[in-house]
Amino acid sequence: MSTDTQGAGRLGFEAGQVVQEFGWGDDVDEALRAEIEKIIGSELEDEDFGDVTDGVILWWREDDGDLTDALVDVQTVLDDGGLIWIFTPKPGRDGEVGHGDIQEAATTAGLQTTSTFAIAEDWSATKLGYRGRGK
């Protein structure tokens, strides 16, 4: 029985994609990381990876610094249309980041939040997309 529909399968990553991980720490959800790696068929690339990627996951906690700067930085490694997910501690957990803070940082970085849901026991996932210019 697969648990993908409950976790990493909801992120939209596909086999063969290169996904870079930022903000790894001892508190990340290793089972979620393993699910993502199973879907893409390879290990997540670390922050030092020097090529273009298909997606980014960013583990982010309240004390990690300037979220806007981090979001600007992760965009530089993405191929056009690449996925950006920010994983933050759930409300009430140490290091939680308010949704308003994520929205503000995303907007300043030229992105928008498109969906947020619980992804693991202690983590929420927020998908960031590129803001469209009306046609």
Number of strands: 5
As a whole number of angstroms, the C-alpha radius of gyration is: 14 Å
Report the average pLDDT across residues: 92
Number of helical elements: 3
Tell me, what's the shape?
globular
Structural class estimated from helices and strands: alpha/beta
The oligomeric state is single chain
Proportion of strand residues: 25-35%
* Unreliable parts: 1-5
- What does the main sheet amount to? 5 strands, mixed
- What is the terminal separation in angstroms? 44 Å
Strand order of the largest sheet: 1-2-3-5-4
As a percent range, the share of helical residues equals 10-25%
SSE order, as H and E? Answer: EHEHEHEE
Q: Can you characterise this structure?
A:
α2 crosses α3 (99-108). This protein has helices at residues 30-40, 67-75, 99-108, and strands at residues 19-22, 53-59, 78-89, 111-118, 123-130. The chain is globular. It contains three helices and five strands; from the N terminus they run βαβαβαββ. β1, α1 and β2 form a beta-alpha-beta unit. Residues 1-5 have low confidence and may be disordered. 22% of the residues lie in helices and 29% in strands. With 135 residues, the chain is of the alpha/beta class.
